[in-house]
Amino acid sequence: MSRMLHVLIHMDRHVERATSEDIAKMLSTNPAVVRRMMAGLRAKGFVKSEAGHGGGWQLSSGLDAITLLDVYSAIGKPPLFNIGPNAEHAECGVEQAVDARMEKTLGEAEALLMQRFATITVEDLAEDFDNAVAARKSTAQQNCAGSEQTLRPGSRK
């Protein structure tokens, strides 16, 4: 999911159109994997694709219209937690009790997470990125200004 969020923000902030090959290079994966992941977003109407020369993937809606829940659904709702029961039919009574409580608790946590995902847009994440870039630039400028103040004319670094 974070990889798809990454792609969507790049498509909005850096490239208007990207081929599956371009995205695959960015994610260090195979173009077929990209096409499979992007297909869900296309089915939801968040991206569109054109085949052939000059084609590729392009956003078809603004990042402010796409929630984390939308992306999670578009990629097929993969399991969120990998700490639940391992066995399909536990025979041990202790394991059954543990599994039952874990399933209930993880289900409650998942419901809360889905509620939160519904309130966060991809634009919110993109703004986090923009703010981080601005903060780095500001810090770099302050560091440069501070070092300039310590240098006197004719002095060496």
From TrEMBL:
Keywords annotated in UniProt: DNA-binding
Name of a matching Pfam family: Rrf2
Transmembrane segment boundaries: none
InterPro entries (UniProt xref): Tscrpt_reg_Rrf2 (IPR000944), WH-like_DNA-bd_sf (IPR036388), WH_DNA-bd_sf (IPR036390)
GO molecular function, one term: DNA binding
Record carries keyword Ligase: no
Origin: domain of life: Bacteria
Alphabetical list of PANTHER family matching this protein: HTH-TYPE TRANSCRIPTIONAL REGULATOR YWGB-RELATED (PTHR33221:SF15), WINGED HELIX-TURN-HELIX TRANSCRIPTIONAL REGULATOR, RRF2 FAMILY (PTHR33221)
Protein name: DNA-binding IscR family transcriptional regulator
Organism: Pseudochelatococcus lubricantis
